Amino acid sequence: MGRFLAIALTVGIGVALMSAAGSGMLLTTRREPRSFSRNDRPGTRPAVHTVGTIGTIAPPTTTTTEPPPAPQAPAWGCDAALAYLRANADPAYTLECPGNAFGHEAMTCAYRAGFCPGQMVIAISDPCPAAYMNEAANSWILSGIRPGTIDPYGAC
Q1: Which has the minimum average pLDDT: 73-77, 130-134, 137-141?
Q2: Domain encompassing residue 9
Q3: pTM
Q4: I want to staple 89 with a disulfide (CB 3.0 to 4.6 A). Which of 14, 34, 38, 85 is the partner?
């Protein structure tokens, strides 16, 4: 009977621990030190006692961040083009708007004889959003810093 009672207590403690854990409570157990006397039977173990510490387990902390602000709708004009290029293009390039893009809406040029010898230039002749957004992307692609295709935003 004593062995059955010990198993029942062990199972009961396990169930109590599982139900306490499921409810967000922490139940701890510890063995009480016990001195044995000559009258104790050999092979007996110290009793397991439930300690009176019951507390709540703090819920896991989750951090949420605000989503980034939605990008502003691109605007036409040199002011909008230059602001966008300053924020998004490779800063190694000189920015020109209005600039000579040799008959194109815009161009990104790096050390090309006849077009931009000895310099890196982004020239915008038609300050439409697709033109300056393309050149910002092209500045990173031509530098080999980012992968991608030339003029990812299409034409104006």
Answers
A1: 73-77
A2: 2-33+46-56
A3: 0.54
A4: 85
